[in-house]
Amino acid sequence: MKRKMIKKILLDTCVITRIYYFQFRDQIARFLFFAFLIPAGVYYIANASTRRDPALGLRFFTASILLSFSMLTIMWLGTILVEDRFYGRLKLLMTTPISRTSYVLGILGYDYMLGLMTSSGFILVSYLFEIEVQLNLLDVIILVLLTLSSFTGISIIVSQQAKNLQAGTVLADSTSICLIFFAPVFYPLDELPKAMQYATSLLPTTYAADGIAKSLSGKGGAGMDMLALLLFSFVALFTAIRSLRWRDF
Amino acid sequence: MKEHLEESVAISVRGLTKRYPEGTLANRGIDLDVYGGEVLSVLGPNGAGKTTLVKQITTELSPTSGSIRVMGIDPFREPVKAKKLMGIIPQEATLFSHLTVHHHLYFFGKLKGLSRDEARAEADRWISKLALDEDRWRKIDTLSVGTRRKVLIGLALMGDPPILILDEPTTGLDPITRRDVWKQIQHSKEQTKTVILTTHYLEEAEFLSDRIAILLKGEIKVHGTLEEIYRLVPRSYCLTYYNEERNHGEREKNKNVHKESDFATLRRIIEEKGLEEYSIRRISLEDIYLELTAEHEEEND
């Protein structure tokens, strides 16, 4: 019985991922814009403003990857989820025999696909950023997946909190921006006021930036970042599943 | 098999009450049985509580109190199991604009537990039955409202669920597309499916339903077969004829309407008056509906 249930959840998850994948296929241009063009532009601005300090190159590169994740997952996907909720597409899925866990996992699967494509793309063209990457592949994959998991959770929570379509879009955009610019992603932690430094420990991007930078430079020691991201992912996805209105009250 | 289904209660609703968080009491202790293989139409003015009732059956909305059983299953305890038995067209649902007609049917077939081959075969079957062949590979945002509605009906029918719950499935459709939808509902009825239909079109309810429930202010006011409902109105036969009278030398046509409880009385009137041109009709559901809603308004006043 349990095995049958798990099989059903996995099959439903794959279908949900495919439904959203078709949307991605339809909007490749928008994907390229969010995933590569804007983050690359921000990288070049950040790099130029520090007179191309080689010590900061990898930080900006990591930050650009995270900006890309945040824009794809929270800004873009968040808006799609808000639209699905207010345009009635979520209702269509709600009335089929699937659980909300399958829906959340399906969205997560779709986001993994986007995130892995984006991070691979960035690493493959790292020479364009004049960055020398010494890849710790397993660590990078784990950190990327954990970062995407917490972002997906946040994205679903944001989509469920919005009172209307416009508010949802604004909420998704601002959450995406704040997660990147209020965490030590583009700048070191000690550049922030003391009180803000404590606050940043509550943002997953703090650990994602630190962990991904370490594993792209060939250094180890991202264990604590992985642990923190694992906790963030668990809390965000659990809250996402709980907050998803699969039924109105 | 058919007899067995007809005898069984497919959906049972007991003491169903729904109070929305802001205080609106949308359903007040509704008791309703929907029998296997029948089409039950739920009628009522806007805000009567039709969609609230349907949404609770489909698990979209939690009841405040009362119970629902879908073929013996509590949909709130086992929502996935209950939803497997129901093909649902929710009122506010829209399709995914980036998916084609085929992909919609295929993916929703898979979500209903069909294998890849079964989902493909079912998608083909419904595309052909709903006359969607030409639109098979077209994306939803390029289709007309009527065609989109047909796709929604296809989604509800995928996987052959024994129960269909259709919340205003023909709203906004042109008469021809509406007839196409009716045909599908009739076809489902022939296949002994149980159908709950909410609608504002009374001729639709009259044409399709085995039984009708009229909901007013969250309560079922009238409930029964068409015959039973007609019997609620004492004089349900209506004779209309015109006679000519001279008024100050001018010829005038006067319309006369007689309402009687039986057909024989009307025939007697026709013979007595020697009428050659007249029309006789049974009072329509619309007449009864309007009478009932007006009565209810008066009671409330």
**Percent of residues in helices of chain B:** 25-40%
Question: Strand content of the residues of chain A, in percent?
Answer: under 5%
Number of helices of chain A: 10
Largest sheet of chain A: none
| Quaternary organization | heterodimer
Approximately how much helix is present in the residues of chain A? over 70%
Q: What general outline of chain B do the C-alpha atoms trace?
A: globular
Helical run tally of chain B:
11
Placed side by side, the strands forming the largest sheet of chain B appear as 5-6-7-3-8-9
How far is the first residue's CA from the last residue's CA of chain A? 30 Å
CA distance, first residue to last residue of chain B: 49 Å
Reading the helices and strands of chain B in chain order gives HEEEHEHEHHHEHEHEEHEEHEH
Q: What is the β-strand count of chain A?
A: 0
Low-confidence stretches of chain B: 1-6
The succession of helices and strands of chain A, N to C, reads HHHHHHHHHH
Instruction: Tell me the fraction of residues in β-strands of chain B, as a range.
Output: 25-35%
The largest β sheet of chain B comes out as: 6 strands, mixed
Mean pLDDT metric of chain A:
91
- SS-based structural class of chain B? alpha/beta
> Structural class of the secondary elements of chain A?
mainly alpha
Structure description:
- The complex is a heterodimer of chains A (249) and B (301).
- In chain A, 78% of the residues lie in helices and 0% in strands.
- Chain A starts with a helix and ends in a 6-residue tail after the last helix.
- With 249 residues, chain A is an all-alpha fold.
- In chain A, helix 1 crosses helix 5 and helix 6 (137-161) runs antiparallel to helix 9.
- Chain B is α/β, with parallel strands linked by helices and 301 residues long.
- Helix content of chain B is 38%, strand content 29%.
- Chain B has 11 helices and 12 strands.
- In chain B, a hairpin with a 2-residue loop joins strand 10 (237-247) and strand 11.
- The model of chain B is unreliable at 1-6 (pLDDT under 50).
